[in-house]
Design a protein that fits this description.
Distance between the termini: 65 Å
Radius of gyration: 35 Å
Strand content: under 5%
Shape: elongated
Helix content: over 70%
Length: 162
């Protein structure tokens, strides 16, 4: 549910946006369209800098409210705790991925060598069967081409096609 709210902050029941929500398209100031917006009665959105200022001022308001509201203070403390854990997990993940990557590459190379050896052994062992199979498919392709050509000649001769 929280993940969904990050993607779409509207109320899941009534689909109304929060009263102080800033839509992403409103964050960018389109200088090219300002004249057109005034002509049709649409007020231009706030700039990205203004949006950042709004977010910062809202954060300050929340922090000042947390001084009086123990529940809000606890929630902010939880947010900070998970932010720290997230940052550490991301750092650890990158570190472990950089250690894991060369090992995976080495395994891929070993698997490719092994796979090539196995295919070579298979082709050597079954060379006669593989050769017969290729000949059969070559004959099938030739027969298909001759069959379609013969049908086309018969159709042209009978006047059934142009």
């Amino acid at each position: 549910m929280v993940q969904q709210l990050l993607l779409d902050p509207r109320c899941p029941c009534c689909r109304k946006p929060p009263c102080d929500y800033i839509y992403p398209e409103d964050l960018y100031d389109n200088d090219d369209n300002d004249d057109n917006d005034d002509d049709i009665g649409i007020s231009p959105g706030i700039t990205f800098k203004q949006a950042i200022k709004n977010v910062k001022s809202q954060a300050k308001n929340v922090k000042s409210q947390a001084k009086n509201d123990k529940r809000l203070a606890s929630q902010l403390k939880t947010v900070q705790k998970w932010k720290t854990i997230r940052k550490e997990a991301k750092r650890d993940g990158r570190k472990l991925a950089s250690q894991l990557r060369p090992l995976e590459d080495k395994l891929e190379a070993e698997l490719e060598v092994h796979n090539n050896k196995r295919w070579t052994a298979f082709e050597t062992k079954h060379a006669q069967l593989i050769s017969s199979h290729q000949e059969a498919y070559t004959l099938l392709n030739k027969a298909n081409n001759q069959y379609h050509a013969a049908r086309a000649r018969v159709a042209r001769k009978g006047g059934w096609c142009m």
